[in-house]
Amino acid sequence: MAKQELLQQVERGFQELMQAVEGLSEEAATRTWFGTWSVRDIMAHIAGWHREMAAALERVARGERPVPEGVDYSDADAWNARFAQAHARTSWPQMLAELKESKDAFLAAARQVGEDRFEEGRVAYRILHNAAIDHYREHIAPILDWRRREGL
Length: 152
Description:
The chain is built from 6 helices and no strands. The chain is mainly α. It has one domain: dinb family like domain (Four Helix Bundle (Hemerythrin (Met), subunit A), Up-down Bundle), CATH 1.20.120.450. Helix 1 (3-21) runs parallel beside helix 6 (123-150), helix 3 (39-61) packs across helix 4 (76-86) and helix 3 (39-61) packs antiparallel against helix 6.
């Protein structure tokens, strides 16, 4: 799949994610319902992965390894918790702004990476899927189900 198509998939998926949370109040967005998380926590951890993987893509674009020496992403739950905790006091409007800014930074970094790195199975392909395309899908359905159940 071509680089441009993957970048468009990120944009489309992001728009679907934003539609899933559109119109939520501060109270609703910060209400715990997804285990110990709220919608704000979900958006915070997505923004965290955007930022973390933007840096990885920048390294790839420079010809470096995506993961710096000494960094280990194998405990995704710990990273997720760290990203959510970093925004525990962020207002809902500020969280949405950070989410958009982080997505824009993620895509800007991806645009710097050579076309060949976006072939299926290659590093940029995997990063775009794991941190964005598949990640958005993972959370959209539960958010929409929750909104239906709660009448939101």
